[in-house]
Specification:
3-stranded antiparallel sheet; 9 helices; 7-stranded mixed sheet; Jelly Rolls; binds 2-oxoglutaric acid; about 280 residues; alpha+beta
Length: about 280
């Protein structure tokens, strides 16, 4: 099994593709070991945090800047996370999303030279070890249900920041091959897998791997691959950026006129849209 690669190995796109097809994912450590576009986005995120501390009068009860925002200024942190999400609104983030380094691998994995993205599909994560994070905890799911448009699509999950091994993502290898997953929507609108099916047909049958957060790494995974968040139990922030890509030439995308899910409301708290 070869799922985890290192950017120091010369990357063989054919090998990446055959493993991606088989297991539903490939992970490349140190992918951004020397990458000005990545650095620029990572720096911008830090600058935005520094900016809000300069210009807003924030209550300070924790020395960690992001934990402090989570504790004392939810809407400020929500606004920052929203800048990197649904869809990314920071130019250095948009540049990273469309950088050749990423897109060339996406083209190879999806087998297409016409790559697009889906509405609502970017997500910036700054996960602390606070209990409130449970609100955004992603239980076992596939991304396709949330982005739609086409199953010929993938998620790129990028490790940012400096914290390491502070939570991460777990994947059920080969689960992208499951047909007709029985799902229901829970009270929060999340797609849950029927419990018995999950225990008997997923937990018992598919191998799970856990990839703990590593800055500068990238994970490419099929949007049908089942995965879940691993909680951050450390006092270091887990900063990650998710970008999603699709094959605009796929039959499904064309049939649907490329429609995916539509953006709903703005802000971290979807049920309380910002008032003007
Ligand atoms: O917590 C993570 O990094 C994974 C999040 C996730 O699975 C998602 O947003 O679809």
């Amino acid at each position: 099994m070869n799922i985890i690669f290192d950017n120091n190995d010369s990357l063989d796109f054919k090998l990446l593709k055959s493993n991606y097809k088989k297991y539903g994912l490939v992970i490349i450590k140190n992918f951004f070991s020397d990458d000005a576009i990545y650095e620029s986005y990572d720096k911008d995120l830090k600058k935005i945090i520094a900016l809000v501390y300069r210009v807003k009068k924030l209550k300070i009860t924790d020395s960690n800047k992001i934990i402090n925002l989570r504790k004392n200024a939810q809407s400020v942190l929500g606004g920052i996370l929203d800048l990197g999400s649904k869809n990314n609104k920071i130019l250095s983030g948009i540049k990273l999303k469309s950088s050749d380094k990423i897109v060339n691998i996406v083209k190879a994995l999806l087998g297409s030279n016409m790559i697009g993205t889906m509405s609502l599909s970017d997500r910036l994560i700054m996960a602390t070890n606070l209990k409130i994070e449970n609100k955004w905890f992603q239980n076992v799911h596939m991304d396709y249900n949330y982005v739609m448009q086409t199953k010929t699509s993938l998620t790129a999950h990028i490790g940012l920041g400096s914290g390491k091994n502070n939570g991460g993502v777990a994947f059920y290898l080969k689960s992208h091959q499951i047909k007709n997953l029985p799902l229901y929507k829970d009270d929060n609108g999340f797609h849950q897998i029927e419990k018995d099916f999950f225990i008997n047909n997923i937990e018992k049958k598919f191998t799970k791997i856990e990839f703990l957060h590593q800055p500068r790494s990238i994970i490419f995974f099929d949007s049908k691959l089942l995965h879940h968040t691993i909680k951050n139990n450390s006092n270091k922030i887990r900063t990650a950026q998710i970008f999603r890509y699709s094959d605009l030439k796929s039959q499904e995308a064309i049939k649907k006129n490329w429609v995916g899910v539509e953006p709903r409301k703005i802000g971290d708290d979807y049920f309380n849209p910002i008032k003007y």
